[in-house]
Known about the structure:
Blueprint: H1 2-29, E1 32-37, E2 47-55, E3 64-71, E4 83-89, E5 92-98, E6 110-113, E7 117-125, E8 131-140, E9 148-156
Antiparallel strand pairs: 1-8, 2-7, 2-9, 3-6, 3-8, 4-5, 4-7
Amino acid sequence: MIYSKLSNFLLITALLSFLLMISQVKVSHAHNIAGPIDPAGNVPTFTAVAIVSCTDDGNGPADHLLANIKDHPSNPAVDGMFVNMTLFKGNKAVSVTDVTPGDDNPSQTIKLSAGNGVYYMIVSKTKPGVRNVVVDYHCMTADNAHTGTDIVLIHYE
Length: 157
């Protein structure tokens, strides 16, 4: 009886440790964020703003930020409902829209070449309603090597 309780405890502990390890690996290697835009579904102008910091992490200084946005496939297709993303830094800006709501394909990837430093990322939608989105982003060197990439959400309403 004690053996089976101990064995179950060890199995659960090992499984949780493995899942924690896997989740940390994904976070450190994958640069994407996912979640709802307008969780209550009643703010047509709902906007999320994040700061993406591009730094030299030993691979070289950042030359540009690459990003795309995807209207998650769990979303129902709604006529006229699109998710948008704008990147800007200094006096430069680029934007993109995922033009097919609720499919499994992201928007085109956009590139903003503005070197090391702080980039702003704005995510919004075109109509009231909850939308789950996935944003993929990467700071890159001039030779297209991945370099230091950090993100902080600063506005979500």
